[in-house]
Amino acid sequence: MTDSGLRARSPLEGATLAIDSTSTLGIRELPFLVQVGLRADPADEPLMSRLTTVLGARPPTDPNTTSISEDGTNQVLWLGPDEWLVLGEPGTAGALESKLRSALDAAAGAVVDLSANRTAISVSGPRARESLAFGCAIDLEPPAFGPGRCAQTLLARANVIIVPVGPADEPAFRILVRPSFAGYLATWLVDAAVGLD
Amino acid sequence: MTGSRLPDGGTGIDRGDPRAFDFEGTVVSGFAGDTVASALLANGIDVVGRSIYHDRPRGVFSAGPEEPNALVQVRWASGISEPMLPATTVPVEDVLEVRNLAGRGRLEPAEPGTDTGRFDARYAPCEVRVIGAGVSGRRAASNARTADPGARVLLIDSDPAAAGDEVRRGMTALGIYDHGYVTAVERCPAPATEGRLWHIRAGRIVIATGATERPIIFADDDRPGVMLAGAAATYVERYGVRPGERAVIFTNNDTTDAVTATLRGAGTEVVAIVDARRGDLIVGTMGDDAGRLTGIRITRAHGRPDAGADGDDPETIEADLLLVSGGWNPNVALWAHARGTLRFDERIAAFVPDRAGPHGRIEVVGAAAGEVEGLGDIGPTWVVPPPGPATDAAWSTHYVDLGRDSTVQDLQRALGAGLESIEHVKRYTTIGTGIDQGRTSGVVTSAIAAAILGQDVGAIGVPTFRPPTVPVSFAQLAARNRGALADPIRVTPSHPWHEANGAVFEDVGQWKRPHHFPQAGESVDDAVLRECRAARTSVAMMDATTLGKIDLQGPDVGAFLDRVYTNTFSSLKVGSCRYGLMCRADGMVFDDGVTSRLADDRFHMTTTTGNAAAVLDHLEEWLQTEWPDLRVHATSVTEQWATVAVVGPRSRDVVAALAPSLDVSDAAFPFMTWRDAVIAGTLGRAFRISFSGELAYELNVPTWHGLALWEAVLAAGATFGITPYGTQAMHVLRAEKGYPIIGQETDGTVTPQDLGMAWAVSTKKDFIGRRSHRRLDAQRPDRKQLVGLLPTDPRIVLPEGTQLVAPDADLRVTPVPMLGHVTSSYDSAALGRSFALALVKGGRERIGQTVLAPLIDRVVEAVIADSVLFDPENRRRDGEPQP
Q1: Residue ranges of chain B whose pLDDT lies below 70
Q2: ∠ CA B344-B345-B351, rounded to 5°
Q3: What is the interface size between A and B, counted as CB pairs within 8 Å?
Q4: Residue A83 falls within a domain, yes or no?
């Protein structure tokens, strides 16, 4: 999100996401999350250490894992052998992008602001895992999938990145989805709750 | 057969919970826990339907999914009607109405608002999956839980009343696929849900599906009153139903001993036990006018003390129930789905899983593995010859597959026709193609075929088992992918404005794009003409957010683009844009778009809306497989940027008002350049590119500002009467300029040269598709080329797709040689007439010539023209030309 004259409107602004009052399942949008795409050679140790300094966390090299900076502001998701997505606090995109670009220096890589390229939907509560299981083929339970992991997969018919954030007994998931699919996915998530048994 | 409810007993029913349903106009009463079949038997209804081809009366034959006779159409309590269900598996609790089918189900047309049943699907990973909750299955599940208390052990059983703890009941496995993938269907898994399709990924699978009894085949073996022996015991024990009063048992094994005891305990008189192992055989049955069983004809073996004077002279016994057991077939379908092999086990006279199979993660236990309890020494009796001369016709009532009305006579015909493979026999006779999939007929068929062919049953084998194991409705397979969720609907950030302002949308892939914005009382054609006129005379705006956008970074991007585009990009200056054409290796046009240089090592590529993902895949494929040495990173940014095109001679004024800090003069911001710009206070990018030939800009801001940008452009343009336009006006405007749309003018067989775009094809460098352009075929002078087309009558808009033929073509002699076809066709405000684009053989050589366009009701003349019909000198791209 930039300081600007044009009003920012998140893809799910005004969408009906409430399910019921029992709060066994919470669905809400986390708008304007900062997301910066990062490509770099993981074998370039000086580069990796420069990036680690900027991010406060070392970009993970184990597939489908994440690392988090000590202050908790940045989370780095592994998306490929030389590809990461950095999640940060709203409003920090410009600074993060330029610091990462400086860290790249002369190395071949890429830094691209993708903050508006996906929005985030938080699905949380005791029924969260069950409701996602209606449309997600991967194993969403720890130890296969818990905090520290991430996955690029399909939820219903939308491409998503899923990041588990809650403890095992109180699961919460961040679902990153492209804005054009957000309305579809929100409708699907709300509808999924009907089938909870 | 005269079935009746016993005064007490029935482990599966709740006598305190009476239920009723309508069967063919009769109210049938039962109890919770009954199936439709047990309730029918309890009410003395012995004829439950007629057979599919021979119209013979049939009764309940089994007590499970193997039922070949009692197939019914069910209206569930939810109101949904479902055909072809075995009455033996339908719980009475959920049923309103039952009809018999004579083998032919029908899908009832849904009246609007009535097809509201909810079906869903769910994924379930687990460590151990046990299919079947009988003794063996429960033991396997218990062992798995003990061995690893943390393991997710999923124990399922298709029986809604299966015994045991931690059993998912009413859930039927449909198939086993690779890597532990199992599908299953569950009825009524949640209060608001009719059915659920389960996708289960299991680390280990235990198949404990038990065994199914099979009959012995004899003349007139299909009467109501003939039933599998084990089924009769089930009706007594589970449902408290006595299936008949005078029973004869025909068997070749010991499992009928317990059945005899059970029936006698229920008050059924067992008048004879005909044991084929002693040489006693049932050679036929007798029936009443309705076809119901009244008696049985038996031959006793020669030399036995109780044999008649002539052992071949059948003895007659009156009975209303004939219980048959020809042995038990292990339920191996799921094992076979996973390519587990089978072998014929003489010990139980049935096919069993071959344990030498390669499936470490799949285990078969209990009866499914061949451990059939109480079988004793089974006799090899499969079929009883007809009592008289064994002519073909004498076998015509030896029903093998009751569900398909297939007989031993049919089987003989198949073998007589030279078919030897059991797969061919299955298809010729249709045995095993009914909804029970040959559960009672399959192995019997193989055995009879083996006997006729003089081979071993094991050598004949059984037909391939394929999923699903039980019928599944299309509604269930579709699950929640229906209605609004049938396919994702993708929308741009300005979509709420489009909707609120009456846009008529068209589907472009999954996107909803405004096709046009009609004003009150305006037709489509009027609206499009008005929108086009605004773009040519004043200013208009379009939501171009759906264009594909790819960010390319790295020192080798220029070199990479030189290889993927037909023209050169490495020479492009930072701040400039260039139109590019992309071919596949076959030389045919694949995509086009404008690509801009953001920095020495960074480019911003645009693609067509429909090809965005395909182009990114194409780039990645070449980068990863052919040119891994190139230092290039491609990232989709399609949805990072919202795009508004501002088009027309007054567009500069609008952009100037929106971006006061941007020097919009032609000198500072010329055609085919881009600038960082603060647009209405937000940092974005302005591109001076045009898809209409007019002075035009494409403004990009981060997506979440997209709606505000749209509204800001609208406000800034208000003084000029800015006009929103849709995809149709965009198509007309570009066609007037002869700009092709990839996928409309092209179809995968069109080269850049065919489009008249040789100017965009470099002769100095290599690129994907270049070698294909050198093929002789790519250089034929009579290839179809893109041209303009002007109907002689300027009011006629030719249908797109119209075929074009030579003016002297004889339209009466078909096929008429074809010259080409219309690819795009519109009415034009700027030209004041209709026009079209067409692909015509050797078209550029034909400019000025007349061709014919034969329509259904008339033949239209049209003149071939240059493809650029409007402003061929490009005098308008910098604004209204000064006179």
Answers
A1: 1, 103, 110-114, 302-313, 356-359, 883
A2: 45
A3: 155
A4: yes
Distance CA A110, CA B514 (A): 35
Q: Are B635 and A37 in contact (CB < 8 Å)?
A: yes
Stretch 519-578 of chain B: residues touching chain A, C-beta under 8 Å: 551, 553-556
Q: In Å, how far from its chain's centre is CA A78?
A: 11
pLDDT for res A21: 53
Reduced to 3 states (helix: H, G, I; strand: E, B; else coil), residue B565 is strand
Q: Which of A8, A112, A181 sits opposite B635 (nearest CB)?
A: A112
- Torsion angle of C-alpha atoms B794, B797, B798, B801, degrees rounded to 10: 140
Do residues A182 and A136 share a domain? yes
Model confidence at A4, in pLDDT bands (50, 70, 90)?
A: low
DSSP conformational letter for B616:
H
| Closest to B171 (Cα-Cα) out of B150, B194, B196, B193 | B196
Supply B125's token pair: 């990973």
Q: Say if residues B202 and B359 touch (Cβ distance below 8 Å).
A: no
pLDDT of residue B650: 97
Q: Are residue B624 and residue B663 in the same domain, yes or no?
A: no
Last residue of a domain, one of B706, B733, B760: B733
CATH number of the domain where residue A71 is located: 3.30.70.1520
Six-digit token string for B436: 């029970």
| B contact test, residue of A4, A24, A113, A196 with most B CBs within 10 A | A4
Residue B565's pLDDT is 98
Query: Is B641 at the interface with chain A, CB within 8 A?
Result: yes
Token pair in block for residue B226: 């003939």
Q: Report the complex ipTM.
A: 0.96
**Total of domains in chain B:** 5
Q: How confident is the model at residue A166 (pLDDT cuts 50, 70, 90)?
A: confident
User: What total of structural domains would you count in chain A?
Assistant: 2
Q: Which residues contact B408 (CB under 8 A, 6 or more apart)?
A: B217, B383, B395, B398, B400, B448
What CA–CA distances, in Å, run from B631 to A107, A134, A197, B634?
10, 40, 52, 10
Tell me which residues of chain B, numbers 668 to 727, contact chain A at a CB-CB cutoff of 8 Å: 679-683, 701-709, 712
Domain that holds residue B200: 109-209+328-374
Under 8 Å CB-to-CB from B151, ≥6 apart: which residues? B126, B127, B128, B144, B145
In angstroms, the CA B581 to CA B700 distance is 22
- Coil, strand or helix at A186: helix
- Final residue before a domain boundary, out of B636, B668, B683: B636
Interface test with A, best of B640, B700, B707, B713 (most A CBs within 10 A): B640
Q: Give the pLDDT of residue B881.
A: 84
Q: Are residues A101 and A130 in the same domain?
A: no
Sorted by sequence, the CB contacts under 8 Å of residue B113 that are 6+ apart come out as none
* Domain contains B404: no
Environment class of A95 (CB within 10 Å of its CB; exposed 0-12, middle 13-18, buried 19+):
exposed
Average pLDDT, chain A: 92
Burial B83-95 (b: 16+ CB within 10 A, else e): bbbbbbbbbbbbb
Which residues on chain B are in Cβ contact (under 8 Å) with A178?
Answer: 638-639
Strand partners, B787: B838
Q: How far apart are the first and last CA of chain B?
A: 103
In this structure, the answer to whether residues B713 and B598 fall within a common structural domain is no
In a shared domain, residues B646 and B541: yes
User: What phi, psi does B617 have (nearest 5°)?
Assistant: -60, -45
> Above 50 in pLDDT, residue A79?
yes
pLDDT band at residue A2 using 50, 70 and 90 as cut-offs? very low
Asked if residue A59 belongs to a domain, the reply is yes
Tell whether A10 is covered by a domain: no
Domain end call among A53, A81, A113: A113
Residues B702 and B787 in one domain: no
Domain interval for residue A155: 26-31+118-190
Shared-domain flag, residues B179 and B32: no
